[in-house]
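B., you asked whether I could sanity-check this one before it goes into the benchmark set. Here's the sequence:
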Amino acid sequence: MYHYSLKGMNYNLVGSGEKNVLKKVLAGTEDTEVIIIDAGANVGQFANMALSLISEKGRVYSFEPAADTFQKLEANIKDSRVIKVNKGLGDEEKQIVLYSSQPGSTIASVFQRNISGELQTDHETIQITTLDLFADKLNLEYIHFLKVDVEGADLDVLKGAKRLLKNRKIKFIQFEFGGTQIAPRVFLRDFYELLEKDYSLYRVLRDGLQNIEQYSEHYEIFSYANYLAILKDR
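And here's what the prediction gave me:
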């Protein structure tokens, strides 16, 4: 009954409205040099969606730290508008261990997790940088859309964009919240407190958005969902 209830509330759904969000946030940017950051690119699924919606002047920076997965990303995406980066994004520049159950896994994580009774034992050392440092290096003055899907380290990615967030240089942010946040012991409250000053927060539904006007512990549901933060007008 619990699982049926979650589905009824648009949690833990495949096809969770991600493409609809992308269309919404990119509306009106068809002829602009829009910048998209894809943190947790995997083999390029999100980048491919974005390519169909941006102009020839737009750019997608796809971050994928896993060696095997990055090779597949390079093979899958040949469009020059996608700049592929063999690093992960986090809260500081460092090397760290990435765990997975097999090479090329879509659920590789910097947190060693037990998934359906199977402990992630494959591992490799990866390089992490911060979005602030990366933006400084490439002179990226404004990011239109930051998509974050990094299996539990989503909050760290935002912490690594502290300067960009403070200066209101990111217009839209999509992040994942659910079971992946159990290992790092992160709550939706942590995202809300980080973003509430400058952003309006929404949960992404299959066919729309649910406005999170005020934080409540009732939103602490550890089942897969995407959230969208939209920069407020001053």
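One thing to flag: Residues 142 and 148 are 17 Å apart (CA to CA). Otherwise nothing jumped out at me.
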